[in-house]
Design brief:
two-stranded antiparallel sheet; 4 strands; Arc Repressor Mutant, subunit A; 244 residues; alpha+beta; single chain
Length: 244
């Protein structure tokens, strides 16, 4: 779905239906609109996404962020400067420690969204679209690889509950109204599960990444006749290295 990538960004920065009041405590904005390609490029970097995730839950110093990300603080100052320059984080507190001013940062807003105005000119300049696709697809691919490497994803088992992964593509013939209904129901399901998870936090609770998308690939019967038919439904489920 080519709507704003607010949900993708919110997932990336650890949004878990946190109450806006917690953000307003530090004078944060309700929503920060990303309206230029350069800021979108800043957000697309994995390290900076992880920093935004860390700073979305509570104010932290660079040393605290470095400790959480298990990296050297010196490697983060450049990223902090970029995030601050582009209005994605801000200083919410500062104190003098051993004669040095130590600043605490937090995300500048409770939610992030991308201005649709970045996308209409993609036929002339695809940079915004390329960055958006990178934020979504490249980061998702990286998370899957890291999940497998860390043992979070087990490709030898069937079922997400057992630690497996479901990943695939499907095609459906539908009208634009039916496509919109699909999005509405998928969104309702997303927030229903998120609400239930918030109400029943347990030791078994884990973070899952949900990659969603729906977009037209053919205009109608004429396109299908010209380019060939597509399967009504085709879903690849990764388990035991095969398809189901």
């Amino acid at each position: 779905m080519l709507q704003t990538i607010v949900d993708i960004l919110n997932d990336a920065i650890g949004s878990d239906l946190k109450k806006p009041d917690a953000a307003f405590k530090f004078g944060l904005d309700a929503v920060h609109i990303i309206s230029d390609v350069e800021t979108l490029r800043v957000v697309a970097d994995r390290t900076r996404l992880r920093m935004l995730e860390s700073l979305s839950t509570a104010p932290r110093t660079v040393k605290q962020i470095a400790s959480e990300l298990d990296v050297s603080p010196t490697k983060l100052y450049y990223h902090v400067r970029l995030l601050e320059e582009h209005g994605l984080i801000r200083v919410v507190d500062s104190r003098v420690v051993s004669g040095i001013v130590e600043k605490s940062y937090q995300t500048s807003a409770y939610r992030f969204s991308v201005d649709h105005a970045l996308l209409p000119g993609v036929h002339d300049d695809s940079s915004a679209l390329d960055v958006m696709l990178s934020v979504i697809l490249d980061e998702a691919a990286g998370e899957i690889r890291r999940g497998v490497e860390r043992g979070l994803i087990d490709l030898t088992v069937i079922g997400v509950a057992e630690g497996g992964m479901v990943l695939g593509r499907s095609w459906l013939r539908m009208t634009p109204a039916q496509a919109e209904l699909y999005v509405e129901r998928m969104t309702d399901a997303y927030f229903e599960i998120a609400r239930l998870a918030t109400e029943s936090e347990s030791a078994q609770t884990r973070m899952y990444e949900v990659l969603t998308g729906i977009y037209p690939t053919m205009r109608g019967p004429d396109d299908i006749e010209q380019h060939g038919d597509v399967p009504i439904a085709s879903l690849a489920v990764l388990n035991d290295g095969g398809d189901e």
